[in-house]
Design brief:
The chain is built from three helices and 14 strands. By secondary structure, the protein is mainly beta. The chain is globular, with a radius of gyration of 17 Å. It starts with a strand and ends with a strand.
């Protein structure tokens, strides 16, 4: 169900007054997280018939010499003869506390698309920089942000859902914090129909152990496939 804001909160959101900056510091070294993914929702019924139903995922955080950080989520399938993939990425300036560039691309059943944009508006995230921000801040209260998705910007709400135990592919049970990002209905704004759920381990690095990313009809569930 779409999330709704009070008129005064919607006005502040549009003005960018409720949108916090990205954290002022990034990881000191490169991080790489390997996942195993499977389809959810309708995709789980059709997987293996019309498109791959499972594969591998890689989430990376790479500091650059200029002080910026590049984060990417790359999803592939070893069963795809076409080399199909989905990629979501962002360049972040931790010193300025903002996302400076975002991009997304895919190759699916012979169709490919690439979108990229410089981000000039404060408080805008994409899938990759959103994961980075939640890991860095662990927000305790709902927070309004704006998400860049396939070349458009939408108002969203980040909601902490509390503690949860998740089971990894090898059977390990991990204590986590659950966060979700959902679209907000704001007058005069586009509504984001995607869903992003994130479970972070209660360890020193807030390791992202499970990620759910939903698009129209198809949802992808990624679970960490490496030692914590």
């Amino acid at each position: 169900m779409p999330l709704r804001l009070k008129p005064w909160a919607a006005a502040l959101l549009v003005a960018g007054l409720l949108a916090p900056a990205l954290p002022a510091q990034g990881p000191a070294a490169e991080e790489r997280f390997v996942y195993r993914w499977e389809l959810k929702k309708l995709g789980a019924l059709l997987g293996g018939i019309f498109f791959p139903g499972h594969g591998a995922g890689l989430l990376t955080f790479q500091p650059r010499a200029n002080g910026r950080l590049v984060s990417e989520l790359h999803i592939t399938s070893e069963h795809s003869a076409e080399g199909e993939f989905w990629r979501y990425g962002a360049e972040i300036d931790p010193r300025a506390g903002r996302t400076v560039k975002a991009w997304s691309s895919y190759l699916f059943r012979g169709e490919s698309k690439f979108k990229s944009a410089e981000i000039r508006e404060a408080g805008v995230i994409d899938v990759a920089s959103g994961i980075y921000q939640i890991r860095s801040e662990l927000p305790a209260e709902p927070r309004q942000l704006r998400i860049w998705s396939d070349g458009k910007i939408y108002p969203v709400l980040v909601v902490p859902e509390g503690d949860a135990v998740r089971t990894l592919p090898d059977g390990r049970r991990v204590a986590t914090r659950h966060y979700r990002i959902r679209g907000l209905q704001v007058p005069g704004e586009r509504y984001w129909k995607g869903h992003l759920d994130l479970w972070l381990a209660k360890d020193d690095g807030n390791t992202p152990v499970e990620i759910h990313f939903d698009r129209t009809l198809v949802g992808v569930r990624l679970r960490l496939d490496q030692p914590l």
